[in-house]
Amino acid sequence: MIHGGGHIIFSRKDVRLKQTKLLLDNGLLPISIDYRLCPEVDLLQGPMVDVCDALRWAREQLPTLKLSCHGLQVDGTKVVVVGWSSGGHLAMTLAWTARLQDLKPPEAILAFYAPADYEDDCNYSPPFLVIVDIGVGIIICELADATFSFIKPGVNPTSPRTLHLQAYRTMYWTPCKKNP
Length: 180
Description:
Blueprint: H1 17-25, H2 47-60, E1 80-84, H3 86-100, E2 108-112, E3 129-133, E4 138-142, E5 147-151
Parallel strand pairs: 1-2
Antiparallel strand pairs: 3-4, 4-5
Helix pairs in contact: 2-3
């Protein structure tokens, strides 16, 4: 989880606790990271390097740690990165910066109201809904208010936030099996 703040303010403590709890309650381990802030360091040599280092840590070191959360199995091959605003921008950069570091990019990137082209006004009117399959469930991202919901396989999504899925006739979701 990568915080926003225009690359110049805030910290890992500025992520939404409700969303962190939602992930934990559904068997996912959220990790909120800090990165060096600009202008003390430039964007390329500071925050972009730091999020890449955090991805490497999540893939290689985190699975070796003994956690106090009983029942959670950390799998470094299944990493999803979530970022808000400038944190979403940093999350998106992992799609290419990870490869430059000989590191596998995240399996999914969720970028909420993140700038992708600093010169184009279309950044500031994103779609209202993104649905992401993360293998153990789906995440429904509501971009208008930067919230998300998690739905486990086989669960009937009937909360107000997920009723719009009925339009897609996906009242029950079953994960896809990958061929070996």
